[in-house]
Amino acid sequence: MKRHFLILLSTLFALAAISLVIIQISQTKRSAKMSDNLFNISVNNAIDEVFNQLDQMKVEDYVSEQERYKLVRYRRIDDMNEKMQDIIRNNSDLFYDEHKVAFGVSSQDSAFPQPKAKLNPEEMHILTQYNTMLNARNRMLATIGADMPGKAIPLDINNVIDASKFNYPLLDSLIREELIINGVDINPYIGVLMADADSLIYLSQDANPNDLRNTAFKYTFHPHGIIPNESLYVVLSFPSSPIILSSDTNIYTILSICMIVLISALFFFSVRTILSQRKLDEMKTDFINNMTHEIKTPIATISLACEMLEDESVTSDMATRRNFINIISNENRRMRILIETLLQSAKMSRKKFSLNLKEIDLNSITETCIHNFQLTVETRHGVIETHLGTIDGILFADELHITNMIHNLIDNAIKYSEQEPHITISTRSEAGHAIFEIADNGIGIAKEDQKHIFEKFYRVSTGDVHNVKGFGIGLNYVSQVVALHKGTIALASDLGQGSTFTISLPLA
Questions:
Q1: Are strands 199-203 and 422-430 parallel, antiparallel or unpaired?
Q2: Which of 272, 297, 383, 502 is the most exposed place for a label (fewest CB within 10 A)?
Q3: Phi and psi of 236, rounded to 5°?
Q4: Rounded to whole angstroms, how far apart are CA atoms 103 and 126?
Q5: How far is Cα 96 from Cα 100, in angstroms, rounded to an integer?
């Protein structure tokens, strides 16, 4: 897949994802606005219903407890006054006859027969009934007068029903009940505000006075029109935002966001996989091309040497003959090591790999590897400098893989030296470990490449020029050998200043 197509695909997906997010945000805002409006309507409906309920109640049902009994007595007194007036109206011939009946002060006072009047038993019964009611009424008036010193008797209803004597806990409970019925499940703070004095004459528990004074939920409060007009308002505030999305909206919003995130994650995972696959394809192509070159070169050299040996004029010279045989042997060894590295790397990748541990001589193996490359280095007018120290301890390792490891490191040092190679190899023991160190004067490795240098098939970029052939598995193989021996490998390199590899293997 071409790079520009991936960029186009990523751009289109990004635009689609952004569009989905914008649409979802717009839909969420719209739903929130609708929920806000529905919330306000629900609260208004609840308050209207509360006021309707209050209008249908008797006054004594919503005055405060301490005032309720006064109102009940007042109405009983009023009823008695009405009955006493009915007795007088129904028996006007008796009560308005000054020769028969006399009153104390007024028509609402005691009635008694005149001294010389002769009343029949029925008339005496009517007077007794009237006076009995009068005495009962006076006792009630006396009780109310004792509770309300200085108040005129009889009471006016406004002496009982005013803003301070309303049963506000009843109002509070009615509001909460109606809010729940109307679908508002947020517990409100409730107050009653006297706007003229800017004071709250009722405040529910834990309510903030300032919130109630500044709330948008304010309703005129004059049940039955009995309470005098004092600019009373029922006010409500809510502890959290009144924007309540329905459960379906919440679920759909969450699912939409999850799907957008999931699709985005899958898309970026797919793109990453495609890019990784593309990189692997490129590395595979480079690997095949390099392997073809690496194998083709020694085969061509061997083929040429064999042709030369078939020439009798060449084979008659023993020195020349021996030289061609050495070429064939070296190229054969080169292919054997190449194939062995490939096979061992494949085994390591399949995790079907085991070490053949035995006591080895690291210095002896190092000298053998140096000898194999001596001719190549001398041909390029280079030098391999050695500092092989004493190893104080026994090194148990796989001789074949240690040999291949050292061979790969020396081969890299030679290949990546643009001028005459100057390679320094040293060994020593340090803190219970055998140390193998190889330094070169090659092209060096950039900092950004150093963290990938031990990855399989990774090769340092040299621009458009690929004059150094390789598979990209040599250093990966080296790192795996070191890891299997429970050792460590370190790299110190600066671009253009050469590289130094230091390997530490534990001693027994």
A1: unpaired
A2: 272
A3: -130, 140
A4: 14
A5: 8
